[in-house]
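User: Please predict the structure of the protein below. I'd like the answer in structure-token form so I can feed it into my own downstream comparison script.

Assistant: Understood. Taking the following sequence of 119 residues as input:
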Amino acid sequence: MVAVTPQQLFKFLHSEEVTYEEYKKAVTHYRFRVTEEQFNALIAADMKPIVVDVDMAEGYFGGDDIIGFAEAAVNARDQGYSIITWYGSNTEAMLVAVRASEVNVLNTPKKRGARRKVK
């Protein structure tokens, strides 16, 4: 099983590179780049990308698109896939179905900064 962050999975799925060397050149930020071992495991993993896109501003999709995405997610869930969602700070969006036995998407902390004190 491969463990990755949502950002790493997004960068992997959004890239069009077919070799690790091409991928490594395309994804230059080390925090978002997977290792060669992770890359090979993700290539072999059973995943169904539903939405993996950038610039997902409000109103980007129409109602028929949204219904199509929902149907794809429900069908994938019925087939035993886990559904992973992620929305990035620059309006990137990811909706992907993965086999939980093959891909573990790690929780990442939300924005750093203000923490509420518990009394």
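That's the full token string. Confidence is low (pLDDT under 50) at residues 112-119.
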